[in-house]
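Hi, here's the filled form for the chain we discussed.

Project: internal
Contact: R.S.
Residues: 162
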Amino acid sequence: MFKGVVLLLVLSSFTTANLSITEVRNVYEKAIYSQQIAVDLIDKLNASNNNTFLGYKGAVTMIMAKHVFSPYKKLNYFKNGKEILEQAILKEPLNIELRFLRFSIQSNSPKFLDYHSNLFSDKSFLLKEVKTINDTDLKQRITKFLLNNNEVSKAEKLTLQQ
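And the returned structure, exactly as it came back:
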């Protein structure tokens, strides 16, 4: 019952035509737990011309693979989402948020999907650039993720904490 109420509140608060990046980030984090939230977020992002939102659309499309049973559908969602995210990164290779999305997905993807080729370069980029981020919300999200990620060494985590 409580989960249903929370889901309803999330979806109803996310029906505005103008999306903020903070709203997208918040809903994106919930998409892993709910197929309906993932579908609704993709629908909202379809209406945007924002390249960062395009990256989120790709990432959420890959997350949809977790919500379907068919191996064929899982692979299709993952491949389609990967293509969308990579398109966004090609347009803005220095966009730290897009590189963060890719790093988070690559560091959590099963090895057999063979989507790990940018792990080292994205991690290096994030570790180098995170201190320059002016967006406090994004900076906190990236820092928290890196501090809890197995791809980041203890030495790198110590440097990040300073």
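Let me know if anything looks off before we file it.
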